[in-house]
Amino acid sequence: MKKTALALFWAALASLLAAQQIAVETGVINIEVPVRVFQGGTFLDDLKIDDFELLENGRPIPIEAVYLVRKRAVERRDEVKRFTPRTNRSFYLFFEISDYTPRLGAALDYFIQNVIMPGDSLTVVSPLKTYRLKAKAFEVRTRAEIVQQVTGLLRSDAQLGSSSYRSVMADLEDLAKTIGSALSQFVDPLADSLFSTGSSSNLRDFSIEELLTRYETTLGLLESQRTIDAKKLLQFPQTLKEDPGQKFVYMFYQREFIPKIEPRILYQYMDLFQDRPTVNQTITGIFDFYRRDIPFEVEAVKRAYADASVAIHFLLISEPAPLVPGVVYREQSEDIFGAFREMAAASGGFSESSANPLALLKDAVDSSENYYLLYYTPRLYIKDGKFRTITVRAKRPGARVVHRLGYFAN
């Protein structure tokens, strides 16, 4: 389609206005970079300003100050220029879960009893609601009482917020079991029954074509509930960017398993119903659901969270798959884990997997409570909205450096 002259005019005007907004910043712009340095699994706490190298967009930049921070205390200063580090902490606990377990309660108990301090802020995001701990909570309630209230809310919200999800999963399980067992009737004409023991009685009146269609439709329902809102995912770091101080996100994500019909069974149905295009089309649709795409642009999310200077710790609760006779459960969270692992690394955070949420949280907290704050001034700061990469190196053989990917010059 050709653009009209009017459309070209508006496009040119928009470009001109955008160009007019680009300007060299005349004031001093200082960039803060939280940095963690490890030798093996041990945090290195003896580094000074000369032990670091920093590059912006691949070009070396002088570091003007380095501060060693433990929790909220600045323990050592090494300055060419004086800065005022903001070490107040904002914590966010996200629970992307379908089932509450006592182990999650143990993780919450540990965090509230041992990690958060008066003056810190805490936001808990359950599958249903968002809760913020009031500033004076520790003055009016004991930590044990706060633990009891928060775990009660999480348990209730997990039950209510995922009731539809669990219902869909139960339907998928029943359909997968029924479709799998029904194959024997087509392969072996002498089979006693179309359905094996355990098949749901309310599915017995459906043809195999109807069962496959119901299974595909139910997969669609499940996918709609598992969809991550990409818009909100990008809005959240913009909100965090306004928070002063250090920001830590601990995201618990339960490993997902989907009750699937084995591919060999689906291929057998395709062979059996070669003269039924609708059946083959439905089975192709089922295979498409099995190949799940990442529901957001990973690179854009990585840069947004790096720009907000928030450390994301992605904690995958890797419980074993359910054991249900006649049903094959397949991993369905590997794609999300890969995307969020990249997101965590780009923010200067960590990603781990374990069946024990308490162990996951302890490791993440231990890795994030000690850090350095590096400050520098870009050589030429231009408000062009472009993303500038940051690279920090430690002059220590074998040292592993963790920090945010960069920032937007806006």
Q: Count every helix, treating DSSP H or I runs of 4 or more residues as helices.
A: 12
What is the overall shape?
elongated
Q: Label the structural class.
A: alpha+beta
Q: What sequence of helices (H) and strands (E) makes up the elements?
A: HEEEEEEEHEEHHHHHEEHHHEEHEHEEEE
Query: What is the CATH third-level topology name of the domain at 89-101 and 151-164 and 224-264 and 271-368?
Result: Rossmann fold
Radius of gyration, taken over Cα atoms and rounded to an integer in Å: 27 Å
Distance between the termini: 34 Å
- Mean pLDDT over the full residue set: 85
Please identify the oligomeric state.
single chain
**Percent of sequence in beta strands:** 15-25%
Name the poorly predicted regions.
Answer: 1-26, 189-198
Summarize the structure.
It is built from twelve helices and 18 strands.
Walkthrough of the structure:
The protein has helices spanning 5-20, 102-115, 137-140, 143-161, 163-187, 208-226, 230-241, 263-272, 277-290, 298-307, 334-347, 357-368, and strands spanning 31-39, 42-43, 52-56, 59-60, 65-70, 73-79, 89-96, 121-125, 130-132, 246-254, 257-260, 310-317, 328-331, 351-354, 370-376, 387-394, 400-403, 406-408. With 410 residues, the protein is α+β, with helices and mostly antiparallel strands. Among the domains are: 23-71 and 373-408, no CATH class; 89-101 and 151-164 and 224-264 and 271-368, Rossmann fold (3-Layer(aba) Sandwich), CATH 3.40.50. Strands 1, 2, 5, 6, 15 and 17 form a six-stranded antiparallel β-sheet that branches. A six-stranded mixed β-sheet has the order 9-8-7-10-12-14, sandwiched between helices. Strand 5 (65-70) and strand 6 (73-79) form a beta hairpin. Helix 2 (102-115) packs antiparallel against helix 4 (143-161) and helix 2 runs parallel beside helix 12 (357-368). The longest helix has 25 residues, at 163-187.
